[in-house]
Amino acid sequence: MKIKSTDINSHYLTKKLVNSISNLDVVKPIKNQKEIEFTKKILLPLMKEIYKEEVKIGLVIKGPVNPVKDKFFRGDYFSDITLSLNRERLIAVEVKLLKKSKKRHQNLSTAIGQSVIYTMGKFKQAILIVIDERLDVNIEEIEKLRNKLFKSNVVFLYFNHSSIDKYIRFIN
Question: pTM for the whole thing?
Fold first, then answer.
């Protein structure tokens, strides 16, 4: 069945991303790789591949090199990736690479706040992608955060580094 532009909305795009990315082999960030570089080299091309049919009929995907600016609470915000159709801002994607360092809680808090702010601005929905170096995060805490964020139109995708290969693992 061929997709039409009228079929494309934030829920459709989110569902497709979750179903696709959770089953793909996504390489983990190189040691000391910055979020912008990882997003530009790995996640942006991956998303363009996932949505290649939607791009053909007008979906616009912009990445961290040419971000879409949004304003909220007298401040400017730039999401890492944006998806829009017919000039309507559908989804803002925030990417956070969490290290094992002492700043991890502040970095996670900032990413959560940014994701919520995107949905309070002009975006219908936000997706927060967290890629964590730690392997010992409590699954119940991930689920609790996922449920809370969902109430604010934020979909939380949590990955951690695999201890056995070069890929990240989606934690459902």
Answer: 0.92
